[in-house]
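Issue 218. Parser rejects a valid record. Input:
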Amino acid sequence: MPTSRGVENKTAMTRAAQIARRPRSWRLAFAAFCLLSLTTGKPAFAQVTSSLVGTVRDQASRAIAGAQVTALETNTNSSRSTTTNDVGEYRIDFLPVGNYELAVSATGFKQFVRKGIILQLLVSAQVDASLELGSRLETISVAADVPLTDTSGPKSDGPSKIKRSSTCL
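Output the parser choked on:
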């Protein structure tokens, strides 16, 4: 006559057998992930983003805290915004690579717009803005090269400059 303890042991053994089978499915999933990574040429977890960083100051080089900074991806019209901190610095991370326009506005200042910013994979672009006193409806547009900072390698004493090339990969 089986006891209740015997039934418990049989149930425990069944659970143990189920647990023993689970690692096989995880191994299979991991192998499929590795195979997929190898066949696409890139790891499935690779990031394709960049960052915009900079400082917003007035004409007397004083930091402007609380300025609105907006990065607009010109091909898709998608945008991301942030505000400057107490020392006038901003950072917008995880932006898809592409062509951008940066707009900076603050109460009592003319709007600052920089066009032609090209974000590259894992390279931060530094765009500093100098705002002039005036109405927010007035706009200062700047079209100039943006210095890129290499963030993929070891750090040096300061930001390293990278020359941009007009060739496409």
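Fixed in the parser; the record now loads. Residues 123 and 150 are 5 Å apart (CA to CA).
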